[in-house]
Design a protein that fits this description.
Elements: H1 9-13, H2 16-21, E1 45-47, E2 50-52, H3 54-72, H4 74-84, H5 86-102, H6 109-117, E3 123-124, E4 127-128, H7 130-141, H8 145-166, H9 173-186, H10 195-225
Antiparallel strand pairs: 1-2, 3-4
Helix pairs in contact: 3-4, 3-5, 5-8, 6-8, 9-10
């Protein structure tokens, strides 16, 4: 059961927006406006003027932890948990949900159902298995079905937010060439640029450079939401 959660195929199930949230580099943008309000013990802090209750924060923390389990596996989580800084990511998630709400981004019940039923961890013989689903929720995620389904809804919303925020980002030919040169010469000081070879290998660099730009842009967007 736990080995399934460490399967490399699991990463394909996690949408890129969620993969970004649990990348340690994004944590270092800081918490900004998500600071504790010392004058009101009923709230842990605020984001964009919205006060955050302990319940809201704890729900967000549980969600990012479950996402980390999906990516790294429960057995491996302890080894990377400190670097991930899930507490900071919980604030990030709250900020992104708030931003998505302002943009009126939503996820339908059908999208939630399809996302869960397409998760290979919940399948037996290639088909969604409700018994397996409930077993993993209970013993691996330690989460009630309704809560997990709401987390899934939020995951979809964040992914849509990522797509919307980064949809106009492009990578120029110059940027792709520079990245190609950088990677190829990293372990080969004598590397010489070959136009024909570059054109042959260019396609595999296109997407990588584009995604890198999108991730950098989105990280700045996250930072802005936390001010």
């Amino acid at each position: 059961m736990l080995k399934l959660l460490r399967n490399k195929k699991t990463a394909k199930w996690i949408w890129i927006g969620l993969a970004i949230i649990i990348m340690p580099a994004f944590v270092f943008w800081g918490l900004g406006g998500a600071m504790r309000d010392k004058n009101d013990s009923r709230y842990l802090g605020s984001i964009a003027g919205k006060k955050i209750t302990p319940l809201e924060y704890n729900d967000s923390l549980k969600a990012v932890r479950n996402t980390a389990i999906m990516r790294f596996g429960e057995d491996n989580l302890a080894a990377v948990e400190k670097a991930l800084n899930l507490e900071a990511q919980a604030w990030q998630r709250l900020a992104l949900i708030g931003a998505a709400k302002k943009l009126k981004i939503k996820a339908t019940d059908q999208e939630v159902i399809e996302q869960i039923e397409s998760n290979p961890n919940f399948m037996r013989q290639g088909k969604f298995d409700n018994g397996r689903y409930n077993e993993l929720l209970k013993y691996v995620f330690h989460t009630q079905a309704r809560a997990f389904e709401e987390q899934t809804r939020q995951n979809i919303i964040i992914s849509k937010l990522y797509q919307k925020i980064t949809e106009e980002i492009t990578a120029s030919d110059k940027e792709i060439r520079e990245e190609y040169q950088k990677i190829k010469s990293a372990n080969n000081p004598k590397f010489k640029f070959d136009e024909n070879k570059f054109l042959t290998e260019k396609k595999e660099f296109d997407q990588a450079v584009l995604e890198k730009k999108k991730e950098e842009y989105f990280s700045k967007f996250i930072a802005e939401q936390l001010k």
